[in-house]
Specification:
This protein is an all-alpha fold. Helix content is 76%, strand content 0%.
Length: 236
């Protein structure tokens, strides 16, 4: 990618998250009910998913740049379906999410990350981060196709941060109260976090797996429908 500002968040921000949050929340592991005695077991997945959000936004940002410089208009003039344009950007975002995920896992392993669920624990993280990158890529594309400008990306960045913070990213849901507890309980990202985090806290179970997969598929279908609708309007 030509713009360093689109690369740096994907490479550095997740590492900053995992380092800062493990330091700030490290003492919570001594509180009964937190779920682990090593804060990396809890925060690694959260930081990796934040990186996946950046990866998805980056994919949509590349399309916004193509719209601004006129390259995307030339793509729309080619014969055939417009769906491959969408699918290609999704695949790029999913592959891009592997960069922050691998970086976060490497740093977390140095910090004592536990693989209680075995190698499958790593697989669930990569599935979750790839899925989140696709979801936020599609959300970003729906906005980009509508506004046709790079400036619209700020909306997706705010939405991504808000969605992640209003989940169980930092603390278990039973540590929350009031409106934050209610929002985190219905936030589909909470189920994605449970799915991706389970292998670091204990054994993998189907009861923790299927809600996360359903949440990823559901979010992808909703955001994909919005993106396809906006793309058709753009190509009309």
């Amino acid at each position: 990618m030509a713009r360093p500002t689109l690369i740096m968040p994907v490479l550095l921000m997740p590492l900053i998250f995992v380092i800062s949050f493990t330091g700030a929340f490290g003492s919570l592991t001594r509180v009964e009910g937190y779920g682990t005695d090593n804060v990396f077991n809890w925060m690694a997945v959260y930081a990796a998913l934040q990186g996946a959000v950046f990866a998805g936004v980056g994919g949509a940002s590349a399309t916004a740049e193509d719209l601004e410089n006129g390259f995307f208009d030339r793509l729309l003039l080619t014969p055939g379906s417009r769906v491959p344009i969408l699918v290609g950007t999704m695949a790029y975002s999913a592959l891009r999410s592997m960069i922050p995920t691998t970086g976060v896992l490497f740093v977390s392993i140095l910090g004592g990350l536990s693989l209680a669920g075995g190698p499958l624990a790593l697989l669930t993280v990569y599935v979750a981060t790839a899925g989140m990158a696709v979801v936020f890529c599609l959300v970003g594309l729906a906005v980009v196709y509508r506004f046709r400008t790079m400036r619209s990306m700020i909306l997706i960045q705010v939405f991504g941060f808000s969605s992640m913070f209003l989940s169980t990213g930092q603390v278990p849901i039973h540590f929350m109260n009031g409106w934050l507890h209610a929002v985190a309980r219905v936030n589909p990202i909470t189920n994605v976090l449970r799915f991706a985090r389970q292998g670091f806290l204990g054994d993998l179970t189907w009861a923790m797996t299927w809600p996360g997969l359903v949440a990823l598929v559901g979010m992808a279908l909703v955001s994909g429908t919005m993106a396809v609708r906006q793309l058709r309007g753009l190509a009309a």
